[in-house]
Amino acid sequence: MKPTNPVFTGIETTIFETMSRLAMAHDAVNLGQGFPDVDGPLDIREAAGKALVDGPNQYPPMLGLPELRLAVASANKRFYGLDIDWQSQVIVTSGATEALADCIMALVEPGDEVILIEPLYDCYLPLVKRAGGIPVRLRVTPPSWSLDLEALKAAFSPKTKALLINNPMNPAAKVFSDEELSAIASLCVEHDVYAICDEVYEHLVFDGAAHRPLMTYPGMAERSLRIGSAGKTFSLTGWKVGYITGAPHLIDPIAKAHQYVTFTTPPNLQKAVAFGLAKGNDYYDGLADDLAGKRDLMAKGLEALGFKVLPCAATYFLTCDITGLGIGETDVEACQRMVEEAGVAVVPVSAFYGGEAPTNFIRFCFCKQDHVIEEAMTRLSNWIAPAAIAS
Questions:
Q1: Contact status, residue 233 vs residue 203, Cβ threshold 8 Å
Q2: Helix 281-304, helix 370-383: angle, nearest 10
Q3: Where are the beta strands (DSSP E) in the chain?
Q4: How distant, in Å, are the alpha carbons of 143, 172, 321, 368 from that of 311?
Q5: Antiparallel, parallel or unpaired: β 113-118 and 160-166
């Protein structure tokens, strides 16, 4: 038979799905896939339920319900001082992954170079390759996760069409510094490059810090696409409601891509997300504070067991160095053993690289109930060798 598309043929199932399946098979505590184990705010869910019953439940506008697009524009002004025209600069998508696919399909042509920063979210590489783009990979390196600005500069070429940045960054739990973002913005302007900004963790930033979109830097408003996610902002990952903010000349072709991918998103969920975006600062502050507490609870437990816990400035995730623990020669082996022998599922960080990768780091997800985190720490304590515990 004729071959299918080589980008997707034989590609491995996402590491998140793989570890979730193993967690189910071994009745493990699942600290692998990044989703909360409690649903988001009741009032938002009630708003969705009411909108579902009241209707209408027919096709909403392709670009999204006006009330949600207006809410997204208002949130951009409220949190970041961005003046956004909701009618020409906002589109609603069926999740942030669809938003990424739409942006890449609309901007990238065969032979275009796209700069990616590793470790990277797993969909970036296949989406860029399927569009015919040529990935140009940079790295931030643990434990500091700092960006080499000279390597960044060298990554740009006359063929560079776009840079894709995840800030705050999964899995590194990094918030890019002002110096790093300024350098990225300056180079994008100098080389006439678009910036696709995956900012789904924008409200999950800890210790009094605040997210700053790349779009707010000089020269970036007309060349940036800012992607947000109701799933992350409201702990409703199953809803798959995302949104893109960008200049009208970029939103127009992206809307055409969206038209032929999902066309639209359930109207009741859109109405509920619009309601949620108007919540007071106490909600957003409480969300970050609650997650920071869970981060600290898990970090304390892991450090007591001998894990070297890397700094975590944002997101749902802690990265740990397993060197010297004796739980596996590589991160993949350690994760396999951990789910099978300890009953705790986590993710190898090497899965977030497109080529040769460090093999001594694993990622834990802490957006779980406290008793779930404590149960995982108990299972790990019962599993890890006494010598490692003593260290």
A1: yes
A2: 10
A3: 29-30, 90-93, 113-118, 134-141, 146-147, 160-166, 194-198, 224-229, 242-246, 308-309, 317-321, 344-345, 347-348, 361-365
A4: 8, 9, 11, 19
A5: parallel
**Could you list the residue range(s) of the whole structural domain that residue 218 is in?**
42-279
Between CA 113 and CA 162 the distance in angstroms is 7
The CATH number of the domain holding residue 224 is: 3.40.640.10
Distance, in Å, from the CA atom of 2 to the CA atom of 48, rounded to the nearest integer, reads 45
The count of domains in the chain is 2
Q: Report pLDDT digits (tens) over 71-122.
A: 999 999 999 999 999 999 999 999 999 999 999 999 999 999 999 999 999 8
Give the SS3 label for residue 31: coil
The rounded distance, in Å, linking the Cα atoms of 128 and 110 is: 10
Query: How far is it, in rounded angstroms, from Cα 166 to Cα 180?
Result: 13
Give the pair of three-digit tokens for residue 102.
């739409």
Collapsing DSSP states into helix, strand and coil, what is residue 270?
helix
As beta bridge partners, residue 196 has 164, 225
Q: Where is the domain boundary, 262, 279, 296?
A: 279
**pTM for this model (two decimals):** 0.95
